[in-house]
């Protein structure tokens, strides 16, 4: 019976020390790990760094979308687990990506689903299969497609190239 009391005391002490440690870690580091900012709360991004004027709304309706999107980066080229393309909306109004295409130099093409980009929004296109969300799209390929020196192109529904990026 004496051993059980002693064991119970150690267990109780262990629980108290563990709880205090967790609380201390949360108190010290809790403010450093903020949840992701919802896309609606992201700040507006200017059209360009050199101060070009925003594209007028009527020109977007007419198909002139130049300057609305950019291919910000192609990451992990040649590594299926990490390979992805980051696309940012740098315009000043909402833009539907439905039927847009992301293409590589060999003609491989990803067709965007019904998706609307808002000011300052971004979407990541992963090469591998996965579960698509609002900000993460999955091409569904079993092999990597991006190579160093290759050009990634973003085409509007009419097939006009709107943005390019050379894979580093």
Summarize the structure.
The protein is of the alpha+beta class and 168 residues long.
Structural class of the secondary structure composition? alpha+beta
Number of E-type strands: 10
Helix and strand pattern = HHEEEEEEEEEE
Q: Report the CATH architecture of the largest domain.
A: Sandwich
* N→C terminal distance: 70 Å
CATH class of the largest domain: Mainly Beta
What layout of secondary structure does this protein have?
Blueprint: H1 2-29, H2 57-61, E1 69-75, E2 84-89, E3 95-96, E4 101-103, E5 109-111, E6 116-117, E7 122-126, E8 136-138, E9 151-155, E10 161-166
Parallel strand pairs: 7-8
Antiparallel strand pairs: 1-2, 2-7, 3-6, 4-5, 4-9, 9-10
Characteristics:
single chain, 2 helices, Immunoglobulin-like, four-stranded antiparallel β-sheet, alpha+beta, 20% helix, 2 domains, 25% strand, 168 residues
Describe this structure in words.
The chain has 168 residues and is of the alpha+beta class. It has 2 domains: 2-32; 39-166, Immunoglobulin-like (Sandwich). Helices cover 20% and strands 25% of the residues. It has helices spanning 2-29, 57-61, and strands at 69-75, 84-89, 95-96, 101-103, 109-111, 116-117, 122-126, 136-138, 151-155, 161-166. Strands 1-2-7-8 form a 4-stranded mixed sheet, with no helix packed on it. Strand 4 (101-103) and strand 5 (109-111) form a beta hairpin. It is elongated and about 80 Å long.
């Amino acid at each position: 019976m004496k051993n059980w009391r002693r064991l119970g005391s150690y267990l109780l002490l262990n629980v108290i020390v563990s709880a205090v440690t967790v609380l201390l870690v949360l108190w010290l580091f809790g403010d450093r790990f903020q949840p992701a900012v919802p896309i609606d709360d992201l700040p507006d991004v200017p059209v360009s760094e050199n101060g070009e004027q925003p594209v007028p709304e009527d020109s977007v309706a007419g198909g002139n979308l130049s300057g609305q999107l950019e291919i910000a980066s192609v990451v992990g080229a040649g590594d299926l687990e990490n390979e992805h393309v980051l696309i940012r909306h740098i315009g000043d109004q909402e833009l539907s990506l439905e039927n847009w295409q992301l293409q590589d130099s060999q003609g491989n093409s990803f067709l965007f689903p019904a998706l609307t980009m808002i000011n300052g929004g971004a979407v990541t296109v992963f090469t591998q299969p996965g579960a698509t969300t609002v900000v993460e799209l999955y091409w569904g390929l079993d092999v990597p497609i991006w190579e160093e020196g290759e050009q990634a192109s973003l085409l509007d529904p009419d097939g006009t190239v709107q943005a390019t990026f050379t894979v580093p």
